[in-house]
Amino acid sequence: RDLDKQMRAMLKGVKSIARQLKASGLNVILRPLPEPNADWWPWSGTRNGNTPASYIAAWKRVRKVAKANGGKRMKLLWAPYARSVPETDDNAIDRYFPGNNFVDLVGVSGYNFGTVGELEWLTPLEIFQDPYVEIRALSTKPFWIAETGSSTKGGKKANWSRALVSLQKSMPALRGIVLYDVRETNGDFRISVTTPSRAATRALLGTRCGKKKA
Prior knowledge:
Strand content: 15-25%
Structural class: alpha/beta
Shape: globular
Distance between the termini: 56 Å
Helix content: 25-40%
Mean pLDDT: 91
């Protein structure tokens, strides 16, 4: 009953948000229920008695409400995390895919946290190439990096940001990148943390679908 109550509250919120976004008159991308293969959200497949099947059912309900209230300009982006936490067969990315007919866009989120604890400095390609291949095998819909950023611990953030520009060479279906611009306990992900970082970000923003803006 508690889960049903939470779902009703969520759907009510989705309905309200979708109507507000429709009223804006803008083309909108909505990313509901992200990162289900991680273990830090209430809808995660390994928490609260959830399963990949219950997640897919929830996604379809959310999509139905969002589409009914958001209008034709709204597209829904399905985006798991770049690696599953925990990395088990039951928690694999493909277990959470709701089906090609129930997504408008696909993508993934992932971060370079730098050399913290046992973690290593990872390039954008090292983070995103494998999940890109896996998700492209599930769907040929346009692909987004739904959320990303790099810490400053253990490497040069500007070089990391420049590497984002060349990702489309290895990921031709890539259509957009959303940058996380926050300093928090997991690292300093701000675009403006250094002058070279700002310059690298400007280069990234000047790139569109593999072509430079005029």
